[in-house]
Amino acid sequence: MTIIFPMAGLSSRFIKMGYTLPKYMLNLEEKSVFSWVLEGFRAYFKTSHFLFIYRDIHHTKEFIKQECQKLNLKNYQSVELDSPTLGQAHTVALGLEKMDIKDNILIFNIDTLRPNFRLPQNFDLDKIDGYLEVFKGEGEQWSFVKTSDEKLCKVAKTAEKERISSLCSSGLYYFRKSEEFLSIFKTMQEKNKLEKDEFYIAPMYNALISQNADIRYELIDLNQILFCGTPSEYENLKKLSLSQKFL
């Protein structure tokens, strides 16, 4: 499995608030946000391959190298992009193409902490076509999942910023075949299927579902995840004892 972290965002909300570093470089308890995010996936450091897709906006290449050395993460590659992208799906597609990766892929945000992450045990990842991790949440700002079978955790539909259910994506996405991800993205690109001026990952599952693919969801508690995507979320994390969360 290749675990992918897209890092090509502009951190625009942080820049507007006066922060001088990309959000993944910001400090939390003497460690970077990047380090805390990766710490959550430590169980897979030796069994999975990690891919970081970034823009070198603040010596990011060297930063990734140094942070991975501190974490003792050796099985990784970094892909540098030379210009901004049209969203997370675009970033991942560019990284997959550049590295010619043909593998099952797990995608997660570089600004979300997921302490002690473990892959689902409710279904066999080798037999399904994809899955999303979700939590029950409020608001309209998420990617949403509508179910077709709650016992089997089957997904009927996904939507971006459209509240079709109370199940909100945590930002963690699995595709059994990276080739399918690329094929769906290319079709989205050709049809210019932008949502809010970006290519999002969650709606990509609808293409698979329309082909009768087996897409599942894994429901977690909201307290299993810590968001750091906005300045206010970052400032709130500074007040927590993160070390206790990762025990």
Describe the protein in words.
The chain has 247 residues and is an alpha/beta fold. The chain has two domains: 1-111, Spore Coat Polysaccharide Biosynthesis Protein SpsA, Chain A, CATH 3.90.550; 122-226, Spore Coat Polysaccharide Biosynthesis Protein SpsA, Chain A. Helices cover 26% and strands 26% of the residues. The protein has helices at residues 12-16, 33-39, 60-71, 88-99, 178-190, 205-209, 231-237, 242-245; strands spanning 2-7, 27-28, 31-32, 49-55, 76-81, 105-107, 112-113, 130-136, 143-149, 154-160, 167-175, 215-219, 226-227. The strands form three sheets. Strands 1, 4, 5, 6, 8, 9, 10, 11 and 12 form a nine-stranded mixed sheet that branches. A hairpin with a 2-residue loop joins strand 2 and strand 3. Helix 2 packs across helix 3 (60-71) and helix 4 (88-99) packs across helix 5 (178-190). The longest helix has 13 residues, at 178-190. It is globular and about 45 Å long. It comes from Campylobacter upsaliensis.
